[in-house]
Amino acid sequence: MNLIELRNFKKFEDINIDLNENGLTLISGVNNSGKTSLLHALAVWEYAKILLVNYRGQDSLLEDYEAEKGLGIAPESFSPISIPSLRYLWKDQKTNGSYQLKIKVGWKGSVNKNLFLELAYTLNGNNFAIKKSDSNLSASDKIPTIAYLPPFGGMNENENWLSLADRRKLIGKGQAGSVFLSKGK
Question: For the chain, what is the largest distance between any 2 Cα atoms, rounded to a whole number of angstroms?
C-alpha cells in the first residue's frame, strides 16, 4: 500500500496519506490524532470491497464498471469495526444521503503501475449503501487484502454485567488493533 485518502471519515474532512510502500509503516501521534481512525478506515474499505465482490462480482471494482446505484446493506449487518452506530463513520456524524464519505487505497501493481480503488458510502435514515466511486483497475490487476485485527486490550472482566449503554461507552477504549496487508490474488 502506498496511499490512503479519506473524505468525510470520522475526524478527517479531507486527508491524503502517502505510505512507505517498501517495508513497515508505523503510525504515531498524540491521543485523538486519528491513529485508530486510520486503521478503522482500512477495515471499512476491506469489508466493503468484500461485500461488493460477493454481491456484484469482481467486475464491480473495475474502472469501467458503472453502478446505477449502490449496494444496500442492513446497517446492523455492516460490522467491520465496533461502533455504536454507522453515523460514527461520518465526520461530525453528519450524513446527508449522498456518497460524501469516501475511502481510497492505492498500491503498486505488478508492472509498477500505481493502482487505486475508492469506495463511497451513504447513510440516509436507516438506508446504508456502498459503491465503487473511482478506480483504475482492470480485470488482470491484483487487489490487496487488508486484515484488521481488532483490539483485545482494555476489556473489563466484568463487562458482561454492564448494561448495553455502558458497554457501548467502552467501545474504542484500549488498544487500536493492527492492520496487515497481503498481495492480492
Answer: 55
Burial status of residue 165 (CB atoms within 10 A of its CB: 0-12, 13-18, 19 or more): exposed
Find out whether 182 and 148 touch, Cβ atoms under 8 Å.
Answer: no
CB 175 within 8 A of CB 148: no
In the chain, the amino acid numbered 150 is: P
Q: For position 77, what pLDDT does the model report?
A: 86
Q: What is the pLDDT of residues 17-33, one digit of tens each?
A: 988 777 777 788 888 88
Q: Which domain holds residue 52?
A: 3-182
Residues whose CB falls within 8 Å of the CB of residue 131, separated by 6 or more in sequence, listed in order:
52, 67, 69, 70, 71, 99, 119, 120
Whole-Å CA distances, 131 to 18, 34, 56, 117:
24, 24, 10, 11
Number of domains in the chain: 1
